Amino acid sequence: MSQASELPEGCSAGVGLASQAGFEPGGGAKVIGRIRSSATQLPKALHVPPPGNPRWVCPKAAQLDLLYLAWGRRQYGQTPIPVSRHPGWQYVLVNRGNPTLVLHGRQKALSPGDFLVFDPDCASGWTDEADGVSDLLVWIWRTAPRCEGYGPSLAAYRQWTIGTKLWSQLEFLHGLCRQEVEHPDKLTGLALEQLHLAVDIAVARLVRPKRRLSASSVPSGKRATGKTAADRKRP
Hints:
The chain has helices at residues 164-182, 188-207, 229-233, and strands at residues 3-5, 30-36, 46-48, 55-57, 66-70, 73-74, 81-84, 89-96, 100-103, 106-109, 114-118, 124-127, 134-141, 156-161. It is α+β, with helices and mostly antiparallel strands. A hairpin with a 2-residue loop joins β9 (100-103) and β10 (106-109). α1 (164-182) runs antiparallel to α2 (188-207). The chain starts with a strand and ends with a helix.
C-alpha cells in the first residue's frame, strides 16, 4: 500500500493564481479538458509509493517551492494511491502505460503523452489493471502555475496531450529537478523556482505559441544581419 507522508510546513490550500482566460491550443498540445472535482472536504495528504519506488519528499525544514518528485515504474493496480487532496499544485506526465486517474466518484484512463496539472483542492488518486505497469513523472509545487491561461481553477485539473518536443523538454526539466534535490546547495531554492517557471513556460508556449513577426514588422535597419543602417556605413 502507499504511505501517507506528513505535509511539509507552510502547505495550505489555495486558489490558483493564473487567469482562466480561454485560448486555442497549438504547437503540438491538445487540450483534453478542464474538470472540477467536488471532493474538497477530503483530507489533504501526500501518499508516497512503497519502498523501492523512486521519489523525493521535501524535508520539513526546507522551505522549497518543490514539495515532491516521483518517477519510474509503478503498479497502481497492486498499490493504488487513495483519493485525497494534495499539499500543492501537482503536475503529472504519463511516460508509459495506461494508469487510471481516480476522481471523486469517477475514473479516467490515461495514455502516454498525457500531461495534467491539478489544483491542491482537486482530490484525486491512481489505480490500474491488476497487471498494469506505468511510468509517470510527478512534481508537486508549493506555489501556483505562473502563466496566464494555463493553471487550473479551484478544485479542478487541466489535461493536455502533448507532442514529442514538449515531452522531451519536460523529461529534461524533471531530471534537472532531481539533480538539484539530490545535491542541494545554497542556490537550490532559486534553481527550483527557475525550473518551475521553465516547466510552466514550456507548456504555455505550446498551448499558446508565440506569434512570429513578419518581415515587414522588423525594423529595416536590423533585418538579417542585426546591424543598423549607421553600422553599415562605417568603414
